[in-house]
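**Reference record**
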Amino acid sequence: MTRPLRYLAAIVLLAGTLAGCGATSDHALNLTLSALATPRANSTPSPPTKKVNCRHATASLRPPAALPAPNALPAGSFMAQIRKRGYLIAGVNTGAYKFGSLNPTTGTIEGFEIDLVNEVAAAIFGNASGHVRYFALTVPQRFTAVEDGRVDIVADTITITCPRRALVDFSTVYYNATQRLLVPRGSGVKDIQALAHKRVCATASSTPIDVMKAMSAADRPVPVGMPQAIDCLVALQQGTGNIAAISTDSSILQGFQAQDPNNTEIVGPSLGSVPYGMAISKAHPDFVRFVNGVLARLEQDGTWQRLQAEWLGQFHQLEATPTPEYDG
């Protein structure tokens, strides 16, 4: 087994072990993982689903003119409820290298998205230390966890789409990725058309699966859904499941290639835009506006650019600061 594969296998094993734990500790940990009995947020039922305006799918609620100080959060607001509880509950990824991934050496989750979540917590508490509990989620769990109040927010390389906006509210876009292909180096594959009727892996219930299913019958690959994108990489490297390629977000694929540069390569043009937003319950529009205010501040003061360079600069082409869109 190559070193990158051993590293990835360790992440999968450790993530699976932690995700199967019982109730989270009452200890004030900055990093707490559980896919089961994380305490529920103090939440109210989501309002009835209303028709979503898809003309501006990435538009979100306008932030306040000025963010309130942590000790002056509006009474009755969801932010005040979180502050009273003592910690923010965030659903995150554990296998998106440098975005949100489990470090097998330290046992902590780290990355660009994790630091963005920490900035949201700092805006509520004054600092993030001891005030964030991370909840490791699979892709199918992301929206139900928000809807039923198990998490306050999800930052998990989620593509903003119109159907998803009917389930949850999204923050403004905090990163723009594209859908690409990762193939074994030297395979001769240059684009998605070369993979017609071949097995191409992506995370189950993800946007890349939908994109492949929508292709013409002549060009369409056979989409194979796995619990996490990292499972696709392990299958591709080990040659199991007859997987010919992986098609998912460029941000994820660049992380995979960085960990196994001698055996994999990214090929072909973009298959579509992939704008990331943080998912929040429709019951808490005040929190959506607050998070958008945090993101706007990070982009204005240079923190967003610094975090992108720190986490992604070694293997990603640095992206321009996303331009926020507001619709209310």
User: Anything to note?
Assistant: The first strand starts at residue 88 and ends at 92. Residues 1-49 have pLDDT under 50 and may be disordered.
